[in-house]
Amino acid sequence: MNVIITDKWNTYLDQFEDSQKDVYYLEEYVKLYENDRSKALCIVCSEGGNVLLMPFIRGEIEDYYDFETQYGYGGPITNTSDKNWIDKALSGIKDYFRDNRYICGFIRFHPLIDNAAFCKDTMNVIYDRHTVAILTDKGVEDIWTTQISSKNRNMIRKAEKSGLIYKAEDNLESFPEFIDLYNATMKRIGADEFYYFDDDYYKEFKNGLIDNSFLATVRLDGKLICSAIIMYDGDFGHYHLEGSDHEYKSLGANNLLLWKSACRLHELGVKKFHLGGGNSTSEEDPLFKFKKAFTHNLESFAIGKEIYNKDVYDRICQKWENENPDKIASFGNRLLKYRY
């Protein structure tokens, strides 16, 4: 078995079926999260026609490395169902990281590909929360009549009667307006710095992912009051970043945006439109309950915490705790706590 780490891996994805990969695995997406302290890479295991790969963002700590998978969803994907070979490949990944000065890695598994299922015997997989995915393969009528709740349908009708206009922009022409709306939304809800992105992020997104995305917009009398980046590739679409004007919340702009975006993704041949989960793990989380109004279909999101060099990892964490006692309550349970 050949195990390599590379910064160019899109050609390997050509060997995968649409149900085995996703937009989150494209070089153009993962490299959005590079900076002067981190590098986008992919570990690839191959043998014969079998391939298993996992993109990640490599960080540096002292003379060692760590990693986390890209914002959103990731983890290992493979083009084979051979369980014995998959287990061998996953063991090969762990050996490679251990032998090449990696101390740990944090993985966000992909709920729609369900890669946590084939990783659970060889990796430390932890169930985190349910997420929501509209089934877009059966058609618009099925979404409207069998998935969307009656109360939600009423909100969508209200939005249309109130004069709200939806548009899907393939050329992302309203990006500058969207960015302002998104940043204002993050400020309003008190979002962590992690959820803010610089101008280069949006420029590179538009340059690299314009063929895998559209900008969903909702306007009232020409004013942008709700907007989201919708990404897609193959079988799967995703509700990526969203901003909305709280003043117009009662009009149902978000409801209209998700309904119309689901219709558009159906037209594009997408089979599942992933809305994600809530702001917490609670099944009563308001955002989670809002998303559940669009479908009864729930997926399972899991994370992975891997430690490859426990002695070094424990030493670095202990040093961080000694120097940052005020941060232990907020970040002490995180695998990469020493980054904060």
UniProtKB/TrEMBL annotation:
**What superkingdom does the record give?**
Bacteria
User: Is Transport a UniProt keyword of this protein?
Assistant: no
Keywords in alphabetical order:
Acyltransferase, Cell shape, Cell wall biogenesis/degradation, Peptidoglycan synthesis, Transferase
Asked if the record carries the keyword Transferase, the reply is yes
Q: What does the record list as GO biological process?
A: cell wall organization; peptidoglycan biosynthetic process; regulation of cell shape
- Give every BioF2-like acetyltransferase domain span: 153-280
Signal sequence range: none
Q: Which Pfam families match?
A: Acetyltransf_6
The protein, known as = Acetyltransferase (GNAT) domain-containing protein
Question: Record's family?
Answer: Belongs to the FemABX family.
Organism for this UniProt entry = Butyrivibrio fibrisolvens DSM 3071
